[in-house]
Design brief:
Elongation Factor Tu (Ef-tu), domain 3, 21% helix, SH3 type barrels, alpha+beta, 6-stranded antiparallel barrel, Rossmann fold
Length: 324
Amino acid sequence: MKLWQNDEELECDSGCCSLSSTYDAKRVCDLLGIPHYVFNFTNEFKKHVIDNFVNTYKLGKTPNPCIECNRYLKFEIMYKKAKELGIEYIATGHYAKTEFSEKYNKYVLKKSLAIKKDQTYALYNIPKEIIGKVLFPLGDFTDKSEVRQIAEDHNLLIAKKPDSQEICFIPDNDYVKFLKENMSDEIKTGNIIDKRGRILAKHKGIINYTIGQRKGLGLSKATPLYVVKLDMKNNNVIVGSENEIYSSELEVEDINYILLDTVNEPINITAKIRYSAKDEKATLYPLTNNTATVVFENKQRAITPGQSIVFYIDDYVLGGGKIV
């Protein structure tokens, strides 16, 4: 899928959808003797990923563009295009597993064997009706070195290609510059205040800050201060002590349940509030309109509105939603 890269842009080798990745895929397909198609979905990518990224920051929240891309592009638009071409299944290189579960009498999404690289966190928004049509060939590998060795054994030039790390449409990783270039609204300076409303310093625009941040605040205090809240209404960054960025409870909206059709009663789960977080024991209390309250056994650090929380039952993905 051509999603973002423009012809006049500098080429970047590390993005997952960069021009070099397209050429690499074509060379692999040529070597294996299989067709290679490229479809232009730049308008759809801008609508569902870029615009969402910018608008979420406008609200003082922190988006996860990879989750939006998976939801709307890879497992919706790409799947529809595959069906148009008469293709029955789609496969991606995510570390995850799908299988038919006798217990749940349906196809389910499970964690991969490579626990440290498991990517089910970014996949909770797959439409549950297509899970049986999705393949994850890397799901049973425990280490990426095994995958690279297979590629090397088959003389694939991408065997030693570096992993893509940054956001694909921000190759220099400077998201603030990107937002300034793509926001129609002026980014205003404001005050950094404490919980009592005392002004401690000036901030450079709320988009420069995130919950739990300590460095770059321009504050010199005997006790370190952290961002505890972004007050968009009054254009304030609110700071407090480290213990104030820990909480055991959060609200969730826009929930997508994929293991069960719905959840009507409180249920014990494990959950993670960011990709790099560990699963933590919690209780999910469903509310109305695909919203819920989640209460963790242990307090979590820097629960961030706009990020996703993903629910698990054992190794199965129950679903997930956006932190309010």
